[in-house]
Design brief:
This protein is mainly alpha-helical. The protein has a domain at about 20-60. It is about 65% helix and about 0% strand. About 0% of the residues are buried.
Length: about 60
């Protein structure tokens, strides 16, 4: 199965939004989608940190 192009994915995203959607809503959805995909790519590449390490770096208990 072929992965849909970015253009096709954008159309799907638009089709799933209500007619009352604002430009801010659309931009937020695009941003969230991009952030999730970037996170998944990092995870697949093994570029993640353990929660304990993140807490240590930020001085959290």
């Amino acid at each position: 199965m072929q992965t849909p192009s970015v253009k096709e994915q954008a159309y799907q995203l638009l089709d799933n939004l209500p007619d009352s959607t604002t430009w801010e809503d659309l931009m937020y959805r695009i941003y969230v989608r991009q952030a999730i995909e970037a996170g998944l790519q990092d995870s697949d590449a093994g570029q993640t940190l353990d929660v304990k390490e993140v807490r240590k770096r930020f001085g959290l208990t």
